[in-house]
Amino acid sequence: MSTDRLHRERVIAAARSLYDRGLTHGRTGNISVRYGEQILVTPTGACLGTVRPGDLSVVDADGNHLAGPPPSKEAFFHAIVLRERPSDNAVVHTHSAHSAAVSCLDGLDPDDAIPPLTAYFAMRVGRLPLLPYHPPGDPGIAEPIARAAVGHPALLLANHGPVAAGTNLDTAMDTLEELEHTAEIFLLLRGLSPRPLTDRQRDAVGSPPTRRNTP
Ligand SMILES: [Zn+2]
């Protein structure tokens, strides 16, 4: 199987997995994988439950459309995350219910939106930035995403949903799923008295890279 075909198959497998488990719905969510000088990304208006390998779009490092159908209107921020995180090669974005619900809450710490409730959240997600609301596809989100992506593998877009990056698609999916799972726990605990990990406990389990990666 060619490298291109292999990457396309992996994107489709991830898309099916997200859709089949209810982590994305309708025609929401998008996935990208970088290899070589190009980025494969799910096309605009695609349902992740039915999109096929031949349907994927190809964009360059700046998000410019190169081949295939028009890319998702959110493809530009995938390109930005990949630019700012040169060691990462995959980005997953969804409107998953629990993360999206948390993204609508008032009063969160914009630098640390969900407390470190579990060690796995601390290790995989770390401090989660909550970025200001922008309408879908609004290029105004570009600068906030660029700034936040440098030091964080996962971001939460206000009144929208999560974005997760990883060295490969499996890692990006793991991070997104950890975020979604912890968002659910966070909501279950609303009105109760959770005891997050202390700073010492959080530091002891390690955290994702907080400095810009090197290629
Ligand atoms: Zn979106």
UniProtKB/TrEMBL annotation:
Keyword Nucleotide-binding: no
GO biological process: pentose catabolic process
Tree of life domain: Bacteria
Record keywords: Carbohydrate metabolism, Lyase, Metal-binding, Zinc
Domain Class II aldolase/adducin N-terminal positions: 9-187
Record function comment: Catalyzes the decarboxylation of 3-oxo-tetronate 4-phosphate to dihydroxyacetone phosphate (DHAP) and CO(2).
Name of the featured protein: 3-oxo-tetronate 4-phosphate decarboxylase
Organism: Amycolatopsis coloradensis
